[in-house]
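Lab notebook, entry 370. We have the chain sequence and a SMILES string for pyridoxal-5'-phosphate, and the next step in the workflow is to get a structural model of the bound complex before anyone spends time on docking refinements. Request logged below.

Task: model protein plus pyridoxal-5'-phosphate, output C-alpha cells.
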Amino acid sequence: MVEAITRPTRIEISKSAIQHNIEVVKQTAGATKLFLAVKSNGYGLGLVPVSQAAVAGGAYGLAVALMDEALALRDARITAPIIILGISPAEQAELMAVQNIITTVVSLDWLKSAAQNLSGEQRLAVSIGVDTGMGRIGFRDRDALAETIDYLQQHQDKFEYTGLFTHFSESDSSEVAYFHKQLERWHALTDGLPAPKFYHVANSGAAMYHADEVPHDVVRVGTVVYGMEPSRGELNDGKDLQPVMTLRSEINFMKQLPAGEGISYSHKYTTTDDEWIGTVPIGYGDGWLRKMMGFNVIVDGQYVPIVGQVAMDQLMIRLPREYPLGTTVTFIGRDGALENTLEDVATHADLAPWEIVTGFQERLHRILVD
Ligand SMILES: *Cc1c(COP(=O)(O)O)cnc(C)c1O
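Result returned:
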C-alpha cells in the first residue's frame, strides 16, 4: 500500500471536532464511557490518526470489526480498551488476551475452543452478543445465552465477563416500531441474567434519539462522532456536530481550450467557448467516485464544476479565468463563505455519507490538525 505524501491531495482530520462531537454524544446520551467505532480504517478517515484523536478527545475505548484492526492499534502503541465487534478465530484467544483485547462471543462452542487455547496467564475479556433483530450475529435463545454466561462464570480463571450487547438495525429514523421490537427482545433475552462489567447497546442512532430507553452509560458509536448526522436530517439538523474532515488538493496543470474540445474519457464534456480548464490530481482510485462528475468544488471562494469523467488519478475543473498552479481546490470543507459538506457529496453521488468516507483509499494522505 502506498500513501501519497508528495502529492498535494490530502484529508485533514480535526482533533477538536472529534473531541467536540464525542462530548455532544456523551452529553446527549448521558454516557460516561464512549467506544468509538474505528473499523474499516476509521470509517475511511485513517485508523491510527482517528484513534489517537479520539482517545485524546475523551473516548474511553475503540471498537473495530476485526482482530487485525485491533492488533494494528496495539502496534501503534494505543493502550485504550479495544473491542472487536466481529467474530475472531478461537485459535487466537491467547493473543487477544495478551494484547488486552475484548472479543465478541456468540456461541458456547467458541468459548470452549478458546479455553483450549488460553494459557490462563492473562484472562480473555469477553463481550457476549445478542441478536434482537439485526439478524447478523448473536444469541437469539435465552437458555443458550444463560448457559454461556454460566460457563463464563465457571471459568473465571480464563475469562472475564466484560460486556453484553446487541445492535439495532433501525435506530435513526422516525419509524420506531422495529426499534421497539428489538428493545422488547433485548429485555426478554437478558433481564434477570447475571450482569457483565458493562452493557453496550447504543449505536449513533440509539445514543442520539433513544438514550432514555436503553442502557446508555456505555455507548458504542461511529457515524455521529465523524460529524455525520445519523438520520441524515430527518430527526435533527445536525448543527450541534462539527465536520471532522476536509478533502483538498491543488491545480497542477492549467490550459485554455477553444470551443469544441473534448475533456476526459469518452468526451462526456465538450467545451462550448474559450474555456480555462484546470487539472487536479485526485480520482476514483482515491475513492473520489466517477459519480462526482458535475459536482461543484470550491476554488478561490467560488463554486466551479468537475467537467468530464473523473479518471483514476486525475480530474478536470472548469474555471472562470486562469489560476496559478498550486491554487487550492476544496472538495469537502469550507473555503471563504462557501462549504461543501460530506452530505453534499453523498447527495450528489446518491450514497450515504458513511459510504463516501469508507471508500477513501489508503493512497489519500491523512493529516491530523487541531
Ligand atoms: C459499526 C457499528 C457500530 C457503530 O455504528 P454507528 O451507526 O456508526 O454509530 C456499533 N456497533 C456495531 C456492532 C457496529 O458494527
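Notes for the group: The chain has two domains: 15-226, 245-340. Worth checking against the assay data. The mean pLDDT is 97.
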